Structures are given as C-alpha cells and as structure tokens.
Amino acid sequence: MSEVRLRLLGAPALEQAGRPLALPTRKLLGLLAYLALEGPAPRSKLAGLFWSEQDEATARGNLRRELNRLRHTPIATLLQTDRDLLQLGPIQTDVAEFQTHLKEGALEPALALYRGPLLLGLELSGAEGFAEWLEARREELARLWREALQRQAEHLEAAHDLRGALSARLTLLREDELQELHHREAMRLHALLGEREAALARFARLQELLRKELRLEPLPETLALARQIEQGTLATPPAHPPTPAPQGVALHPPLDRARARVGPHGSGLGGPAGHLPGGAAGGGEKPVAARVCPAQRPLFSVAGPALR
C-alpha cells in the first residue's frame, strides 16, 4: 500500500500517496488518530473510549461497524488485528515528526509543523472517554509548542533578530494574554526597537487585563521595566538576556505566583495612577484558578465528502 499520512496538528486530514483521502465518519478518523498516537489497543478499551455511554456489548458492536467501514476504503490493509488487539501498519503523522524535531533541537521545522491544537474541530458525540484523552494530549503538545516558541524567541534575540523575537512573543500572547512574562518581554523588545509608545501601550494592556480578570497589579519587575521605558533609561542591549524556561515546566505567570501580597499595591510609578496608562487599582486579592485558553472551534473539515 502506498504511503499514508495523518495530519493531526490543527484541522485533521488524511492523505494517501500525497492525495487527500476522505473517511466515511468522524469516529473512524478519531479511531485512526488514537491508534496512530497510542499504538496497539484492545477492542474493549476502544469501545469504551468512543461509545462511553453504551454498555460493552453495544459499544463493541458499534466498533465492529466502524472497522467494517474502514475495510471498504483504500487504506483497508492499514488496520492490523492480533486477537483482541487493534493496531495500524506503517503510517506517518505530523505529531511524530514534531516531537522528533524537538528532541533534535530543530525548533524551526518543529514550529512549522504545529498548525494548531491536536485534532482541531473534531468533536464526537457520546465519546467522553475519547474527549478526556484528547484534552490531555492536546495540552501536552500545546505545552511543547509554547516552550519551543519561547526558546525560539530567545535564539532570535541572541542572533539580533529583535523583530522576529517580538513576533514570537506576540504569538505566545495570542495563545494566553494573561502570561505576564511574555508581556514584559514584548515591552522590552518594543523598546529596544525604538517603539516606546508600543511598549507603554503593551504595559497598559497588561495592567487592564490583570485588574479586570484577576484584580491584581503587575509584578515589581514589570513595573520597573515600564519605568525604565518611560524614562528612556532601558539598557541597550539588555545586560541580561531572558532566562530559558526549565524543560518540561509550563510557564504561567501571573498564575504560578502565589501573590503573597495582601491586597493590591499602587503602580509604583508615582502613585496609584503614576505617569503610565492604567486606571484605578484593583480591589483585594481573590483565589486564582488555572486559566484555560478558549478553544478555537472552526468548522470541521477533511478533504472529500462531508463526514457524518
């Protein structure tokens, strides 16, 4: 059988010999994706993942029907069975390539492969088990992407490509605008590029977000940087480059700080309002829950006839 490839990062797509291939149902696509990423799995587990609300006999019957549909497609021989186990034959995935590039330290090709969250737009009815698995795998890959993009920003800055480094930081902020570290780095890069007003506007945006969403004020180091930018005293180039994130640890300031301060402090820039944009200080502290980025939900599409 000719080469089969599954594109799983972003909107999913199946290709055979470089040509788009349509599948008859969404669940069949989800089943292929699961086996491609997780390897061999027993029928009972797959039935429970994809038909979580059904009893085992009904769920296994539904699984048999999906497998029968697969046998009537051009990739029928891709599925391999060994007693109760199901697995796929040779298949290429962008996820495997993405992870390989990261292990080799090849950030640029890895980042080029990440077109969006895993299986973007694939929602399956009655498949709570699959949904839970997908959420965990999606976040794992998104974390790897964020860490890679942060390292890429640092490498670009070290190579004196400040504009490229700024673009990377702004991409990270589009993923989660409450990440104070990336606001601070974007402020600094704007300033180093001679874009003082853009740097101060970024600071004002951060102040607005923290006060509105979390009733917090920026960290002291962010306030100090804003003061330097306003006064024109920021060192060029910076004396200390950004510290790389520890591998395997997700960054989420302001959420990872305990914020031991009792109640908000002033802006630190000449009083509560200071000279920078901002507005009134927020109220007292409140518990901070982990922030989850709103999921993008475009229309599901795979080349070929619409899936059921």
Account of the protein in words:
The longest helix has 31 residues, at 128-158. Strands 3-2-1-7 form a four-stranded mixed sheet. The protein has a three-stranded antiparallel sheet with strand order 4-6-5. It has two domains: 4-133, Arc Repressor Mutant, subunit A, CATH 1.10.10; 160-287, no CATH class. Helix 5 (107-113) packs antiparallel against helix 6, helix 6 (128-158) packs antiparallel against helix 7 and helix 8 (180-192) packs antiparallel against helix 9. Helices cover 46% and strands 7% of the residues. The chain has helices at 26-38, 43-50, 56-70, 94-103, 107-113, 128-158, 162-175, 180-192, 196-214, 220-231, and strands at 4-7, 13-16, 19-20, 41-42, 79-82, 85-88, 92-93. It is of the alpha+beta class and 308 residues long. The two termini are 26 Å apart. The protein is elongated, with a radius of gyration of 24 Å. The chain contains ten helices and seven strands.
Helix-strand blueprint:
Blueprint: E1 4-7, E2 13-16, E3 19-20, H1 26-38, E4 41-42, H2 43-50, H3 56-70, E5 79-82, E6 85-88, E7 92-93, H4 94-103, H5 107-113, H6 128-158, H7 162-175, H8 180-192, H9 196-214, H10 220-231
Task: Write a compact overview of the structure shown.
The protein is an alpha+beta fold and 308 residues long.
Q: What structural class do you assign from the helix and strand content?
A: alpha+beta
Strand order of the largest sheet: 3-2-1-7
Order of helices and strands: EEEHEHHEEEHHHHHHH
Average pLDDT figure: 82
